[in-house]
Write a structure and sequence with these properties.
CATH superfamily of the largest domain: Metal-dependent hydrolases
Helix content: 25-40%
Number of strands: 18
Distance between the termini: 13 Å
Shape: globular
CATH architecture of the largest domain: Alpha-Beta Barrel
Strand content: 15-25%
CATH class of the largest domain: Alpha Beta
CATH topology of the largest domain: TIM Barrel
Number of helices: 14
Number of domains: 2
Radius of gyration: 21 Å
Length: 431
Amino acid sequence: MAWLLKGGRVVDPAAGVDQVMDVLIENGVIAAAGHLSGAPEAAGARVLDCTGKVVAPGLIDAGARLGEPGFEHRETIATACEAAAVGGFAAVCALPETNPVVDDPGGVRFVLEASARAPVRVYPMAAATRQAAGQRLVEAGLLKRAGAVALADPGGIQNGGVLRRVLEYARMFDLPVVERPRDASLAGDGVMHEGAAATVRGLKGIPAAAEEAAVARAVILAEMTGARLHLAPVSTAGSVELVRRAKERGVPVTAGTTPHHLTAVDEDVEAHDARWKVDPPLRTEADREALRDAVRDGVVDVIFTDHAPFAREEWELEFDAAPFGISGLETALALLLHDLVLPGRLPLAALIERMSVAPARLFGLPGGSLAPGAPADVTVIDLQAARIVDPESGRSLGRNTPFAGRRLTGWAWAVLVGGRLVMHEGRVLDA
């Protein structure tokens, strides 16, 4: 089916384009972009009037937990992918935080097969060590051949010698290693950022050093091995500075952060509401400003959801006992548009770069461009739409968002994947 996306503001950072124009889609790819006359309509293309909307390369979530296999009570691949479509994503990279852990080719194939009919594309990551236990290495070459786009132990790799071997092995197959920078010995049993806010709330703190020490170690090992290292998420000003210096030295390191670390701080945490409990924790205002600056200047390459859905009985507990994580697929884009883009704190093109172009480049994925011949993965955004966050009516099974009840302006209006309209005005469409 051919589509003509007519009259939208096309923002394509990969091509340096930001202007009102039309986009023609044929046979699942971008056929043309420009000021197209009536020829496409005459040729039978369906018209999607995008006047007043933003037309962008399809957003790619560079890290989300999809539940399957093993945690279907929290989320399923089907519900996560529907939530992703509603949130404006055309593709999701699945973290291997599953049971069993995706650490062999069969696990990768399961995720691919289970998502074959999903409305959005799914790209599985695989654990970097067997059972994500941080000891024995996985068969990286076989995992890449099966379809894994990266190696990532969900809790990070605590042993420096193992991390070195993972990086050396991954380099042989040109696989990025996604490392969650967290020194467990420094984090201890903390539940929020260590500082005045934690003291006032009577909660145990996680120091910034727990992240920064892990970032420093990982950067040194990436420089030593020459492997592709992606640190995600980073949450402190110190981590940003370490990444900045590493990039200046030519270390092959990239970094990612989340919408909640860009829009909230430790002072927002409510001690009686475990939906604010995330790892790494929400940091200080100074850390948030450093992250925003790093996103603007490209030191932080990627913004990803770190989607972590939980069943109600898991998060409706005391703060200390509840798990870490926010359900974020449906609200990520809206939070960033409302809090950063619309107030002028972040250019729209920079946001699209961090959520589409950069993830595609990082993992070697199709997409991230609206150039002729590119896959027709497109996100259309309505910067005027206003909606109240209501997790109870969402597609995700995870209701654990602290942003429930907030009125946000700027939402995804439509998503096309491979030239197929999969979401329109908040509705997920049948195949």
